[in-house]
Amino acid sequence: MDRRALRPALTPVGQAAALLIATAPLWSWAQVSGDAPPPPLRMSSSLALPLGGTPESRDLPVYFEADRIEGQPGERTTATGSVRLKRGDLTLRADQVTHSTATNEAAAVGNVRITRRGDVYTGPELRLKLDSLEGAFLHPTYRFARTGAGGQAERVDFLGPNRLQASGATYTSCTPDNTAEPDWLLSTSQVSMDFEANEGRAENAVVRFKGMPILAAPVLTFPLSEQRKSGFLPPSFDIADKSGFEFELPYYWNIAPNRDATLTPTFSSRRGLGLDAETRYLYPSDRGTWHAVALPDDRVAGRNRGLIDLQHQGEANRAGSPTLTSYDLRWRRVSDNDYWKDFRDLPTLTPRLYGSHAGIERQINTRAWGLGPSQTTLYARVQHWQTLQDLDPEADASARIVSPYRREPQVGLRSRSNSESGWLWRFEGEVNRFTNQDQDRPTGNRVHALARVERPSGTAGWQFTPALSLNAASYDLDQVDGGQRRQLSRAIPTLSLDGSMVFERPVNWFGQDLIQTLEPRALYVYTPYRQQSDIPVFDSAERDFNQYSVFSENAFTGVDRVSDANQLNLGLSTRLINPGTGAETLRLGIVQKVLFDDQRITPDDGAPITQKLSDLLLLGSSSVIPNWSVDTTVQYNARDNRVARSLLGVRHSPGDWRTINLNYRFTRNSSEQIDLGWQWPIAGRQPPLKVSDMAATANPQAVGAPDTTGATACGGTWYSVGRLSYSLRDSRLSDALLGLEYDGGCWIGRVVVDRVSIGRAEASTRLMFQLELVGLSRLGSSPLRTLKDNIPGYRLLKEETSLVPTPAESSYFQDE
Fold first, then answer.
1. Distance between CA atoms of 300 and 607, rounded to whole angstroms?
2. pLDDT one-digit tens code per residue, 139-191
């Protein structure tokens, strides 16, 4: 059972308090029982030597190195001057260390420094019993390698290998100078931790930003490991033109190790109170998520609003069985047609179309049944759609969308041979019942069979594949015009011959040693004409004309339409490849169809295509110029002597956090649009060009010292982020995303305005704020998903992984 799929839930203050002491070098270690499986392999930086306090480590020796060592053997040892003591994975440095052999106690004074696994602790005085791990550290300062953050405490009392208590503890990722206060600071009056019970308790916890309290809790508890714990999560808030001020306060409920729930009360200044609820479960054979949003009595719409999204996946298999059975369920519904206009964060990429289905699939190992090497799958499915239509009588007719057909049900079989034999075959047979929420569209039943057999041959330099396929279907339609039921059937074969070659030669272009390829391809297709105008279109659509679809045997997707063809599809491309990295620096291509006979089956049963030469497709992409990339496609109509469609994309990325994208899209008689997206530093400290540059210069040894890379130092860099989509055809800005990010080193602020068109003259606007305290938590409404989805090349200002390396030890006393 993979419990990592369920999110951990520490409150923001609890996360910091746990980090505050949880990685201390004196009391935590890992144990594996004799019956337990071995632990997984990990990076060496996460491994640790045995540590005092465990039964198996009580006999660990103590190593000393100092300018002067004196004392009585077997009783007491006093070391002075650059003292270094090492026991297990703990290294202690101080001006003076006195070790008592009888009690195995070490007393250190003067510039005391403890290091373990990159974590550093310093202070004036420490007393510690190395066997029982009991003692006290006065006024320690600490810094954790994993988070790049730390703080100070008045006193830390070690109460044994599994318990401790810290008084007056603080935590921050800022590294201010000697006169300034950190930009943000978490402080607690007392923190108690019991690692055996996996529980911590913090009293009077307060988070301050620029000296102002922004979060506080009189008492809170939290887990000391990655295990989840119930509690409130950081609040979220934003401003939207359709809802006003929106505020959410999530509560996380850790029901069981394999089940959890998040309950989020919501408040909208215009719409009222609501509730967002999500529950997740994970079992050995089943998993799923149930998500529901309820907004009773929406004050703007004057009715109840809501959303439901249920997901479930599972398997039902017996050990040793040659079959594999799986099933899945997805049910998505919203309350009304205007829901997509008024709310964001919808559970679909198509906000006006919500698909739901329930299906079961059974894979059969036919070899075990003596049927030869093949893969066969039996399946059954029910599929529904909810289509949100614009009911405004004044709305443009183009705003209405066509609702897809429902399948009630879909039952079928798929089978194909594997690559062990020279001949390859595929077969699919289905029975479908098609219905539609639009009562004016035809409905009925369809039984179809798709079969294909081919014999590929060739080498790395050439390929040739003859193939024969069959598309057969029978229809039983419901009531149609004239009051007659109609039964139709047809069977259409297709013959194809597909051949390609690859030529290579070494070249030296642009000052580089490269490999140039020349790759011709030809596909001949013959499909006889069959009358299909009286057959409804349940699941077919015209293929887009591009470099991939042009080599398809059928000009339509789905089953209901099969294009007649007597044609030759030709393509020629050349590429420049870096032989060392395999990277493609240049690609040029040209594609065209040659029709020997007119194509009579066309979209919408229109006029036949009589043009012998299809549109010419020209392709090009290049990254020859460093930090620049260009990608272009042009569809040229030779008969009309004009461009039918074109796409031009240019991208400039000289380094991390620096990207500019410009795209131009043109479709004749349809649309013409320009998209501009960017992320770029505009003021303040200049960030490094590469993350590796930051990691290479990180210095974890100096506690409290500024990080010259800006990873934790409170400097300041302003970034501009955004994306603009402008319609040249309509002379208007269709979508816009504009924002500012400020990287203060130990905190990040974001303000983003997102405007999305929901009609020809209507748009939805949202203003999002976020404050990220690096190493602690994020507060506000996160715009990160919006930025990632809209700006190609966008990257977080702070990566999720630590940039602090763990140096290898060249000697036993190597500084850590």
1. 50
2. 888 887 666 777 888 888 877 767 778 888 888 888 755 556 888 888 888 88
Q: Is the dihedral of CA 678, 683, 689, 695 positive or negative?
A: negative
What are the sequence ranges of the domains in the chain? 8-30+50-228, 264-441
Summarised one tens digit per residue, pLDDT across range 650-697 is 999 988 889 999 999 998 888 889 999 999 998 877 777 776 555 444
**Distances, alpha carbon 285 to alpha carbons 259, 363, 568, 695, in Å:** 14, 16, 50, 42
Q: Would the CA dihedral through 559, 560, 561, 562 be positive or negative?
A: positive
The fold of the 8-30+50-228 domain, in CATH, is lipopolysaccharide transport protein A fold (2.60.450)
| Cβ 344 vs Cβ 246: under 8 Å | no
Task: Name the residue among 148, 246, 315 with its Cα closest to residue 698.
Answer: 148
Q: Tell how far CA 421 is from the center of its chain.
A: 39
Look at 230 and 529; give whichever has higher pLDDT.
529
Choose among 444, 449, 522: nearest CA to 487: 444
What b/e sequence results for 89-128 when a residue is b if at least 16 CB atoms lie within 10 Å of its CB, and e otherwise? bbbbbbbbbbbeeeebbbbbbeebbbbbbbbbbbbeebbb
The amino acid that residue 689 corresponds to is: L
CB 126 within 8 A of CB 112: yes
Nearest Cα to 552, choosing from 575, 530, 569, 527?
A: 569
C-alpha span between 184 and 707 (Å, rounded):
17
The pLDDT, as a whole number, for residue 367 is 59
Section 614-629 average pLDDT: 89
Q: Are 337 and 343 in contact (CB under 8 A)?
A: no
Give residues with Cβ within 8 angstroms of 341, minimum separation 6: 242, 758, 759, 762, 764
**Pairing mode of beta strands 251-256, 259-268:** antiparallel
Q: CA 201 to CA 192: how far, in whole Å?
A: 5
Asked if omega into 140 is within 30° of 0 (cis), the reply is no
What residues have CB less than 8 Å from 682, skipping those under 6 apart? Answer: 718, 719, 720
Distance, in Å, from the CA atom of 165 to the CA atom of 75, rounded to the nearest integer, reads 30
Q: What is the pLDDT of residues 85-106, one digit of tens each?
A: 887 767 888 888 888 877 778 8
When the pLDDT of each residue in the chain is averaged and rounded to a whole number, the result is 79
- State both tokens at 442: 């035809």
DSSP 396: -
Residue 687's CB is within 10 A of a number of other CB atoms, namely: 22
What is each CA distance from 335 to 279, 303, 347, 636, in whole angstroms?
20, 10, 14, 45
Mean pLDDT across 1-11: 37
Instruction: Count CB atoms within 10 A of the CB of residue 739.
Output: 22
The answer to whether 172 and 185 have CB atoms below 8 angstroms apart is yes
- Nearest in space to 805 (alpha carbons), one of 148, 348, 5: 148
pTM assigned to the model: 0.74
Give the range with max mean pLDDT: 68-72, 461-465, 666-670: 461-465
